[in-house]
Amino acid sequence: MYGEDIDLSYRIKKTGFKNYYFAETDIIHFKGESTQKNTPDYLKYFYGAMKMFVKKHYSEKKATQLLMYSAVSVSRFFSGIKRMFLNAFNKKAIQRKVSSLLIVAGHQRFNEMIQLIKFSKKPFVISGRITATHSDNELANGNLKNLATVIKKEKINYVLFCQQEMSYFMIIDMFMKYRSQSGFLIHSLNCGSIIGSNKKDERGIIIAEE
After folding, report:
1. Cα(61)–Cα(64) distance, rounded to whole angstroms?
2. CA atoms of 142 and 156, how far apart (whole Å)
3. What is the reported pLDDT for 159?
4. Sequence-ordered list of residues with C-beta below 8 angstroms from that of 10, at least 6 positions apart, any chain
5. Are 157 and 101 in contact (CB under 8 A)?
6. What strands lie across the sheet with 124-131, from one edge to the other?
7. How far, in Å, CA of 113 to CA of 102, rounded?
8. How far is Cα 53 from Cα 44, in angstroms, rounded to an integer?
């Protein structure tokens, strides 16, 4: 899983073609959800994939293969040390800490999210609502234009964006603008769950009816 992109790119170059970076589209990548980083499984699969790549493409160059194997092994060793230090800290208290949540949605969708948030294993306190459209005149904490101000003033830990009132393109744009100020969650229209992944070293958040 962790070496397929490197393998494909290397094979493309070997056949005389070129790799190009295409920047005309956006994607939300919930990093670290398939295998948690700095866990035994991650170290096994990630560095195992690197050794598989070396064996596949450098088996005839024994000196180069040995050197690259050594580099991969050293890197895995230090990653293992890092994992030990990270696991030494007790994260349970942090995970159970109540987090403030701001919801970007219309009034009806806001009420629906309140009911869904009740199923969250991570405790949230809903701080209010942000309007997503100019025609929304219902009671709210603010709008998208002053979102940064509201986050800072009310010390918001997470912002939940509801897709429909906002396109995915707009949501990604908000991520990029305010990622240093808050964590983010997404609810897609007609979806029964809320998802978010803000730290590559920790499991993301999934909220759904049980």
Report:
1. 5
2. 13
3. 96
4. 53, 57
5. yes
6. 142-143, 124-131, 99-104, 158-162, 183-187, 193-196, 205-208
7. 11
8. 14
Q: Where in the chain is the domain with CATH 3.40.50.720?
A: 94-208
**Residues sharing a CB contact under 8 Å with residue 115, sequence separation 6 or more, in sequence order:** none
Q: What tokens appear for 185 in the block?
A: 């969650």
Taking CA atoms, 172 is separated from 130, 167, 168, 186, in Å, by 17, 9, 6, 10
Give SS3 for 142.
Answer: strand
Report the pLDDT value the prediction gives residue 93, as an integer from 0 to 100: 45
Q: Which portions of the chain are predicted below pLDDT 50?
A: 90, 93-94
Rounded to 5 degrees, φ, ψ at 13 are -65, -40
pTM score, two decimals? Answer: 0.70
Q: To which residue do tokens 């160059």 refer?
A: 61
Length of the chain: 210
CB half-sphere exposure, 128, CA atoms < 13 A: 15
Domain 94-208 class? alpha beta
What pLDDT, on the 0 to 100 scale, is given for residue 91? 55
Q: 128 forms bridges with which residues in the sheet?
A: 102
